[in-house]
Automatic annotation (TrEMBL):
Gene3D superfamilies from the UniProt entry: 3.30.450.180, lambda repressor-like DNA-binding domains
Pfam families referenced in this protein's UniProt entry, alphabetically: HTH_31, MLTR_LBD
InterPro entries, sorted: Cro/C1-type_HTH (IPR001387), Lambda_DNA-bd_dom_sf (IPR010982), MLTR_LBD (IPR041413)
Native organism taxonomy: Bacteria, Pseudomonadati, Pseudomonadota, Betaproteobacteria, Rhodocyclales
Name used for this protein in its record: Transcriptional regulator
Species assigned in the record: Candidatus Dactylopiibacterium carminicum
Domain (HTH cro/C1-type): residue spans on this chain: 11-83
GO MF annotations in UniProt: DNA binding
Amino acid sequence: MDARRKELGEFLQVLRTRSQPADFGFAAGSRRRTPGLRREEVAQLIAISPTWYTWLEQGREVNVSADVLDRLARSLRLTRSERAYLFEMADRRDPQDSQPEEDAAPPILIQLLNDIDVPAYLMGRYWDLLGWNAAATALFAGWLDQPRASGDALPNMLRFVFLRPDTRQFLVDWETRARRISAEFRADCRSRLDEPALLHLVNELNEGSSDFKRFWKQHDVLERQGGERGFLHSQRGLIHYQQVTLRPVEHEHLKLVMLRPAR
């Protein structure tokens, strides 16, 4: 038996036995021999046959659709982590992954930025900067220190790199950095490539930058990595940092980027 199908079956059994029948509109009764819901009750909740659901719990080689998994996750009121685990064990893509979420940074993360004494900022799913600290403002002078009126678009890292001519002098080895940033962005947005907001941003970058258009068409894909980053600052001259990117567990669409002075 495939290990992943076995894990899925055992996971479904645990979900079923921990569920209280009364919470789902079924009579508890004294005739139940085991705790939790019966298999046929779960099957009824997610609108599939009891036999087919039984096969899932037994780890048999059956194909379960993302729609069925979605109904199961909703019906049994799974947590976000449980839902992700369910889809991973079933080797299916969660349709919720392509649904836009609120792209906002929790206040605690914004406060955390102010406790960091090196340049640090938070990026959202489309690489808008949702917050940054004073050290980042000083590093990105001429960009993050500009006043913003209510309703103005947030600063965006892709627009900064590709649509501002002065960035080519500011980023050391701009060509290499820009190519990598394009590849990292494609990897980061791989499950959201059909979202209207992302399509709008990509179209804007394609129209405004022949370099971005060239890099984007190459379909390079790279996970975001750390490493040394050089900047030619207008007042401080050439400075180097080690970049570190972290993802908060409860807000995986956010990226906390920190730039530690290189030694």
